[in-house]
Structure formats: structure tokens, C-alpha cells
Amino acid sequence: MDIELRNKLKEYCIPLMPLPKPLQNVDYEKLIHIFEQNSSKLKKLSYKHTIKGTKKSIDQFFYEMYFSYHEFNYLFKDMIPLKCLGYMYVYISPNYEIPIHKDTGYAKTKLGFFLKGNAPIRFYQNEHSSSFLGEYNYVSPCCINVLNYHNVSNNHLERLTFFLQFEEDYKEVYKKVTNIYS
Hints:
Layout: H1 3-8, E1 13-15, H2 28-37, E2 43-50, E3 57-68, H3 69-76, E4 86-92, E5 97-101, E6 109-116, E7 121-124, E8 132-136, E9 142-145, E10 149-153, E11 159-166, H4 170-180
Antiparallel strand pairs: 1-9, 2-3, 3-4, 4-11, 5-10, 6-9, 6-11, 7-8, 7-10
């Protein structure tokens, strides 16, 4: 990510570069294995999507999987020793676009680890695509301010992302991660 884009997106996401030492040891294959072993926990979500140039609307789907911190930290604490609200996987099928949105709920920040695919997260000033600011391609895990507008427009590959969810502001999470491990 070049410096100009990083500065433009600093209110939206902060990449962990250089990656703090303990996070260099995250076992991505183990994270994928945990996801695959818990497929019964997948929650199917859908949005109505209007096909461009038509009045036709279709349901499109993506999937989320949640693990509470207290019940499941034993799965993740050796790799990512951070106390958080919980853990979450987001699976997006090929060619699916999640509409521009802000997250709701307790989590203000997500620390994201890209596991499969290569579609970036995109950021906006408002809910309109014309307000596009930039995108992040997950060259490194990042702290994402999910209270800002964002989306993913997936390509032909499956996309799988693992998140730690925090109630703190994303800049505080970034400081916590980088200060603990520096």
C-alpha cells in the first residue's frame, strides 16, 4: 500500500506493517481447518441485489461464523493472544458483492486476516458507490474501523477472512497490538 493511499485510508483501516512478531506465527492453515471443521456454525446471510441495467432483483448470499471469546479462545489464543469480543469468519462466494454498509452491533473494530481469495475491502465516504475512497488488498492483517462505510466486491474466487472483534476504537486496537508485541 503506497503512503498516499495509506494516509487517505487511515480513518478506515490501519495495516499491521511491519507485522508484530507473535502475529508472524499465525497458522493460516489451522485457521482454515477450524473453519472447515465447524461448517455447521455457518450462518447464511443475504441481500437483495438488483442486476445492473435491469429491474430484476435476486437474493445473493454470503456466510458468517461466530465464536465467542469465552467459549472458544482455546482454539485461537496460542496463535493470537489478544482478548477480544469474539472471533468471526466471513465467507463470500465467487462473484458476490456485499452492499456498501456500516457494521452494527458491539464491535467497532475488526482485526482481519485474509485466508483465501484476493478481493480487497473497499471504503466509501457514504452509502453511494460514487464516494469511493480506496481499497485495501490485505497484504498484511489490518485493523478495520467497521463503523465506516465499506464493502467487498468479490471476483471469481472464494473469499475467506478471519476476524477478531473489538469494542475499542480501531486506533486503540492498533496501539494495543503493536505495543504489546513491540
